[in-house]
Amino acid sequence: MSAVLPGVKKIAVLRPNAVGDFVFALPALHALRASYPGADIVYIGRRWHADFLAGRPGPVDRVVVIPPVPGVGVAADAKVDGDAVDAFVAAMVAERFDLAIQAFGGGRFSNPFIMRLGARRTVGLQVAGAGDLDLTVPYGSMCNSRLQLLEVAACAGARAWHFGRPELAVTDADRLAAAQVLPAALPKPLVLLQPGATDPRRRWPAARFAELGDALAGAGALVAINGSEDEAPLVHAVASAMRAPSIDLAGKLALGGLCGVLERCALLVSNDTGPLHLALAVGTPGVGIYWLTNLIESGPLRQHGHRAAVSVRLHCPVCGAENLSTRCAHDVSFVDDVGTARVRACALELMQAMEGINCCVASGIVP
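The chain above was modelled as a monomer; its predicted structure follows.
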């Protein structure tokens, strides 16, 4: 761990990526906030970051939206508006950052970009051949992303932060959005199923989610099924295959509303995708269905509210190609060998365990 940099008034953090990737950075962002409580922490991200974090308490003070930059959020050979990029860089130089942190990949393109911002000190991830920053952490593709980013924060002088509180705040606006799709009073514990994922290889079959939903409904839960508008056919497939009634939330929730729903859930069962990591960040227990490499890279740091159902399949079920070091062309599920009984056991165990923890908290046994 490096010493806290004196006189830090403004910190830039470059990480313009997706929902789960943002959640992975939250421990590092909280650690930076703890070490630099008076600094202005500026997150360089995408439009969705600005929308989602506006008015949300947390370690980020404000978001600036980066334009498309080759190799930084868009393909390295993408045609972009060079004048817009230059104008953005000039605006960032004028901010006079004391510390700029590159938290977006190995740095082949992002390190040269972060150096253009003119910060007093630069820190970040680095692969061989990437531009040199003042302090770097070797970038590895098969390691826990949260821990890797905490190492970067430590290089910037950050200390560990308290792990006993939620990483992401739920706002009144989130709760109001959730109230539009859920009854004011829930008759049973609410369990949310998330059958979608951007990568088809991470998707557990819809029929298994339906079996699980019926099992959890039989155990006394009220089941809801979430997905984006594009995932509506998948959500409908799960709901129509269930014998028990369910709440269909497909396309009805923006990210904030999803956080509001998650706050009211007793449990989320999900593929390895953004809503799983949002749930864990707001403090909702979650069962994740993972391919083994995904668990290595995206597993949460706190385990008391998390259980993992893992496929250890290495080879494509279609062509037999090993998919650890390379990726074959087949978009088939790599987690369909995870049995319903395993996921059901994880879900019931976690719900019972969290009831015990909540009892301990209420009685003052656990701080």
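The domain at 172-363 is CATH 3.40.50.2000 (Rossmann fold).
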